[in-house]
Each structure stands twice: as structure tokens, then as C-alpha cells.
């Protein structure tokens, strides 16, 4: 299944439940930005690619940015709008690959978090997205990426990852590794009218490795100002 179909038909229905405490996630990203001196500067404009239900967008709005929140899923963007209380956030339903038609340059900041870049179909399209971001950013402005490092393959039962559960839902993620991609299967058991119903959907991601992403970003012209890894999730701050 294609990524958009997976979100539209499966993942969007329980995405916000899956990511957990929204306020905690929003405040964590806000603290990350402020601790790295990321604040509105020249234009005050930020673009949030793959905005989802708005963790990064609302954090950036609270910091003082004017935000364009881009996502291809209308349900998640609707949740973002419901959460927004007067912040200058414009929701844009579009593919992140169309970034150059979404905003005029220059912008202060672009963020693409939550493993969004791995959803691109090919590494060539990752290169183009990095290049487009570079072109849109003003001089000395920044791109923040977060993504999961898939360099070390999980094997056997390690491939079955318990994501979250409560009295009504149990979510397990199963990962299969290939040379250039990983196949992710979201296996949801949901209690409906007293019966447990299984819902399953799979989609492919790029098999990203930190050194390779950095090399691609540097080839475009970015300089890495920060690189850290927390529980296999990589956070990069790239400067034009």
C-alpha cells in the first residue's frame, strides 16, 4: 500500500492516540528549539512538512513563528486546526514534495520531523526535497530533520515492536528489512462492541542511515550544526 493510502485508510484513525500526550510532545519540541536558539529572525516564517496533528507547528507558533503546516491527510490537519488557539498557523493539504509551490522564499526555518522523510518513495526524491529546502531558506537559516536510523536490522522476534496498548486498543509494529527500504506493518487490535477486531496495513519506507542523510544534505550545501540520536531516532539541525 502507498503511504498516503496507509494514512488515509488506517493510521490516521489512531495516529494521535499512538503518539500519546500531545502537550508533552509539543513542549519537548519547543524546548529543543529554544535550547538550540531557534527563534524567528528575518521573515519569521516556518514550514512544517508532514505536520500531522500539529506537535511541531503549534510549538513553533508559540515560539513566535508564522507557520505553514503541510500534510496530505485531511483528518490530521483537522485535528491541528481544532488544537490551534489563535496562533498564526496556516494548514496546507498537499504533498511535501510540492514545497516550492507552497511557500515563497526566503523562509527562516523548515522542519520535517517524525520520520516523515523516510516516507518519500525514492532516495532521488529525498535529494530533491533537500535541495528544494535549501533553495527556500534564507542565508544562515535552518532545516530540522528527525528520522529513524534503520542501519541495523532487527531480526526474528525483535521485528515485532509493541507500540502502545490500553483497554480498547493494542498496536504492534512489524518491520521487514530490505537493501534500500523497510516494510512497516501496523497491526491494530481494537475492541468494538465487546469484540477484538484486527486491522492490518503495510507500507514501505526508505531505509535511512544517518551518515548517508548527512552526506546528501552536505552535498546540497547544508552544514550540520547538530546531530544526536535518542532511542534510534536521529535529530539533525542543518544550516544553509
Q: How many individual β-strands?
A: 11
Element pattern in H and E: HHHEHEHEHEHEEEEEHEE
* Share in helix: 25-40%
Q: State the separation between the terminal residues, measured CA to CA.
A: 35 Å
> Can you summarize the main beta sheet?
7 strands, mixed
CATH class of the largest domain: Alpha Beta
CATH architecture heading of the largest domain:
3-Layer(aba) Sandwich
Strand order of the largest sheet: 3-2-1-4-5-11-10
How many domains make up the coordinates?
2
Backbone shape: globular
List the total number of helices: 8
Low-confidence stretches: none
DSSP strand (E) fraction? Answer: 35-45%
CATH superfamily of the largest domain: Vaccinia Virus protein VP39
| CATH topology category name of the largest domain | Rossmann fold
By secondary-structure content and strand pairing, the structural class works out as alpha/beta
Mean pLDDT: 94
Map the helices and strands.
Blueprint (H helix, E strand, L loop, with lengths): L2 H7 L5 H5 L2 H14 L9 E5 L5 H9 L2 E6 L2 H10 L5 E5 L5 H4 L4 E6 L10 H14 E12 L11 E6 L3 E9 L3 E12 L2 E12 L3 H11 L2 E8 L2 E7 L1
Parallel strand pairs: 1-2, 1-4, 2-3, 4-5
Antiparallel strand pairs: 5-11, 6-7, 7-8, 8-9, 10-11
Helix pairs in contact: 3-4
Describe this entry's structure for a reader:
By secondary structure, the protein is an alpha/beta fold. It folds into two domains: 180 residues, Rossmann fold (3-Layer(aba) Sandwich), CATH 3.40.50; 50 residues, N-terminal domain of TfIIb, CATH 2.20.25. The chain is 31% helix and 37% strand. It has eight helices and eleven strands. The strands form two sheets. A seven-stranded mixed beta sheet has the order 3-2-1-4-5-11-10, sandwiched between helices. Strands 6-7-8-9 form a four-stranded antiparallel beta sheet, with no helix packed on it. A hairpin with a 3-residue loop joins strand 7 and strand 8. Helix 3 crosses helix 4. The longest helix has 14 residues. It starts with a helix and ends with a strand.
Amino acid at each position: 500500500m502507498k503511504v498516503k493510502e496507509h494514512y488515509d485508510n488506517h493510521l490516521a484513525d489512531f495516529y494521535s492516540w499512538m503518539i500519546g500526550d500531545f502537550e508533552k510532545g509539543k513542549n519537548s519540541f519547543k524546548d529543543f528549539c529554544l535550547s538550540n536558539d531557534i527563534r524567528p529572525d528575518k521573515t519569521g516564517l516556518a514550514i512544517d512538512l508532514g505536520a500531522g496533528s500539529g506537535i511541531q507547528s503549534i510549538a513553533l507558533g508559540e515560539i513566535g513563528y508564522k507557520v505553514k503546516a503541510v500534510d496530505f491527510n485531511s483528518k490530521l490537519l483537522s485535528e491541528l486546526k481544532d488544537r490551534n488557539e489563535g496562533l498564526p498557523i496556516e494548514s496546507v493539504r498537499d504533498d511535501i514534495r510540492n514545497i516550492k509551490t507552497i511557500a515563497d522564499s526566503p523562509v527562516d526555518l523548515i522542519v520535517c520531523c517524525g520520520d516523515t522523510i523516510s516516507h518519500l518513495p525514492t532516495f532521488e526524491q529525498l535529494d530533491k526535497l533537500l535541495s528544494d529546502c535549501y533553495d527556500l531558506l534564507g542565508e544562515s537559516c535552518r532545516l530540522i530533520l528527525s528520522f529513524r536510523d534503520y542501519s541495523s536490522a532487527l531480526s526474528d522476534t525483535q521485528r515485532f515492536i509493541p507500540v502502545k496498548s490500553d483497554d480498547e486498543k493494542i498496536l504492534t509494529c512489524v518491520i521487514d528489512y530490505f537493501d534500500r527500504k523497510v516494510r512497516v506493518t501496523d497491526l491494530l487490535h481494537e475492541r468494538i462492541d465487546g469484540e477484538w477486531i484486527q486491522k492490518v496495513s503495510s507500507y514501505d519506507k526508505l531505509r535511512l542511515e544517518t551518515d548517508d542523510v548527512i552526506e546528501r544534505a552536505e552535498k546540497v550545501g547544508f552544514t550540520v550544526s547538530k546531530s544526536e540520536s535518542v532511542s534510534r531516532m536521529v535529530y539533525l539541525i542543518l544550516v544553509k
